[in-house]
Specification:
single chain; mainly alpha; Four Helix Bundle (Hemerythrin (Met), subunit A); 3 domains; about 75% helix; about 0% strand; globular
Length: about 625
């Protein structure tokens, strides 16, 4: 059941990102940037143009969601006796997925007809709802033992009213979201040029696009009032349904944010970033209300703190000092999940790329927002990595004291934390940097989690060779933040870090080879032996250094950079050669430490050279 729940959770996260990307496609007008389907301009890898990249990324993430949906359904099949409800929901998700794929193709064929676009959104939100229910039902089946022949405790009448309200609120958000989709796709987004009134009136002339916009606003008002009433009911139902209170309050906060975003959409004349976030908050509201409705219909807690399944709840009231200390330790653990030392090097390469692109110091506000967004994306990826790898982290001496294997942070909260950081990164960068940077940061997160952590790391000794692509994206993010596009220089910066990653991590693997062997991770020294790893380290080091030298002949860097690259590269190759000859851990440690300094100084030399030229 744990495997099923993990697969469903990852699918839910990817689906939410897919909904956001779909909103971005609509908001930027990128829906027909790929005029054909399933290819894009007749190619698997399309031209590097922003609208094309947005639509292509949307399709790529949709493909990944499809694979995870099938995997979830297959895992649910093996649990169909223990959790028949989960199995039925999983196969419903597969049916919705197939329908969504066909409708996506139809959307392109019919050139974004408003009705088809809204139907596409409806299926997407229905799919998100179904996947959310799978996660909740799988979790419930895991933690709630079967009650056997025991009669479930009877719920108070107020609990049933609350359950109906929660379902009604979720349906209301679903409907209001579809109305919003129709408003955008039918050209009625600015039919009312002011807000909250329409042409300065409570009730404007109800015709054409104005009528469409007015209906959307009235629906939003009705749903908002419904959410408010549901939240008030949740506070009363908390005694019988523990956990509904915080979810309802979070929904109320998102409702307030959604109202502000609606006003901003009109005031700023429908900017793509705000429109995308508006849809993202609507989807998040839907998920929260689905959670609320699910919990509302679970067997209630009776006196003594037990349900029909025997799940007990207890509360304690520690002193204030203990609470503060616990909060401090918890905060430190959550920071630890993000692996801040790794983030520092990633941000250094991103900032250096910004300096290069600007040929001097970049705008400080832009730099701060880009680095903050990058830190959130990297931290989110690392936290999700900790969640996925918590089993092997508990086996390895180097990682067994991390918060998850040590039991200091619950796995579900670590996953939610990582997801929240990733979503926050996208929203921040899309709104205040640019969409291309936001998409690149999310692609790096998805590649690191979906390709490296979930697939390559435990399946092939080439894990770090291919997986290193995720860590090579930050310079592209920094470059795109300044220029709004990608060019040859950005691609070469990516290539440098891509080639740097294998010798860097293989040096560490030589030192920690027994750890990796015990955990069953097929790192190169474990599978091929130390000698093979040492040969590969030297070979990759040579290729890396040669690659760094081509920037000057291509006219992208000057002679100052070339001199620095030669000196730094000579040191790298010398230490790699020493690792080839010297089988001690000390030599490998020396190369590992130098490789970090090498990369930082190399990018500093690039930035300095470009600022002079």
């Amino acid at each position: 059941m744990d495997r099923l729940r993990r697969l469903a959770t990852i699918t839910a996260v990817l689906t939410y990102l897919l909904v956001m990307l779909g909103g971005l496609v609509r908001a930027t007008g990128a829906g027909l940037a790929c005029p054909d389907w399933p290819l894009c301009h007749g190619r698997i890898l399309p031209p590097l143009e922003t609208p094309v990249l947005i639509e292509w990324t949307h399709r790529l993430v949709a493909s990944v969601v499809g694979l995870f949906t099938v995997a979830t359904a297959w895992a649910a099949r093996s649990q169909r006796k223990a959790a028949p409800r989960v199995a039925r929901l999983a196969w419903l998700a597969v049916v919705l997925l197939i329908a969504q794929v066909l409708l996506g193709a139809l959307t392109v064929r019919l050139h974004l007809a408003a009705g088809v676009v809204v139907a596409h959104l409806a299926l997407g939100l229905a799919f998100l709802t179904t996947i959310t229910l799978i996660v909740l039902a799988a979790d419930d089946a895991r933690v709630r033992p079967s009650p056997g022949n025991a009669e479930p405790p009877s719920a108070p009448r107020s609990s049933f009213r609350f359950g109906h309200l929660a379902v009604l609120a979720a349906v209301g958000v679903f409907g209001a979201s579809l109305l919003g989709g129709y408003v955008g796709s039918s050209g009625a987004a600015l039919a009312c040029p002011d807000w909250p009134l329409c042409y300065g009136r409570l009730v404007p002339p109800l015709r054409g696009p104005i009528l469409v916009q007015f209906i959307h606003r009235m629906a939003a008002l009705t749903v908002g009032l419904l959410i408010l009433v549901t939240t008030l009911r949740a506070s009363r139902a908390q005694r019988h349904h523990p956990g509904v209170g915080p979810v309802a309050r979070a929904a109320l906060v998102l409702l307030a944010v959604q109202v502000l975003l609606g006003g901003l959409n009109v005031s700023l004349r429908i900017p793509a970033a705000v429109t995308t976030i508006h849809l993202g908050v609507a989807a998040a509201l839907l998920v929260l209300l689905v959670i609320l409705a699910f919990r509302a219909w679970q067997p209630p807690v009776v006196a003594g703190g037990e349900t029909a399944g025997g799940v007990a709840y207890a509360a304690a009231t520690p002193d204030a000092g203990a609470v503060l200390r616990a909060w401090g330790r918890a905060a430190a653990d959550y920071v630890h999940l993000t692996k801040p030392r790794i983030i520092v090097l990633l941000l250094a390469t991103a900032y250096a790329a910004m300096w290069m692109a600007a040929r001097g110091a970049p705008d400080p506000v832009l730099a701060l927002l880009t680095l903050l967004g990058g830190a959130l994306a990297a931290g989110g990826a690392n936290a999700i990595n900790c969640y996925v790898d918590r089993d092997i982290d508990g086996v390895m001496a180097r990682t067994r004291t991390r918060p998850l294997p040590a039991g200091r942070v619950p796995p579900g909260r670590a996953l939610a934390f990582g997801i929240a950081l990733g979503v926050a990164s996208f929203l921040l960068m899309a709104a205040w940097v640019n969409v291309l940077s936001a998409v690149l940061a999310q692609l790096a997160l998805l590649f690191y989690v979906g390709v490296y952590t979930l697939w390559l790391k435990r399946s092939t000794p080439l894990n770090i060779v291919i997986g290193g692509a995720a860590g090579a994206v930050p310079p592209m993010v920094g470059w795109a933040a300044v220029t709004g596009r990608l060019d040859l220089t950005a691609v070469l910066l990516f290539g440098i870090i891509f080639l740097w990653t294998p010798p860097h991590f293989w040096a560490l693997a030589l030192v920690r080879v027994e750890d990796y062997r015990r955990a069953g991770v097929p790192m190169l020294p474990v599978v091929k032996g130390d000698n093979a790893a040492r040969r590969q380290i030297l070979a990759y080091s040579g290729v890396l250094v040669l690659f760094t030298l081509v920037l000057t002949p291509l006219g992208l860097m000057g002679w100052l950079y070339l001199g620095a690259a030669v000196v730094l590269g000579a040191g790298f190759i010398a230490l790699a050669a020493q690792v080839r000859r010297d089988t001690s851990h000390r030599a490998a440690w020396r190369l590992f430490g130098y490789s970090i300094v090498y990369l930082a100084l190399l990018f500093f030399a690039m930035a300095f050279d470009r600022s002079l030229g």
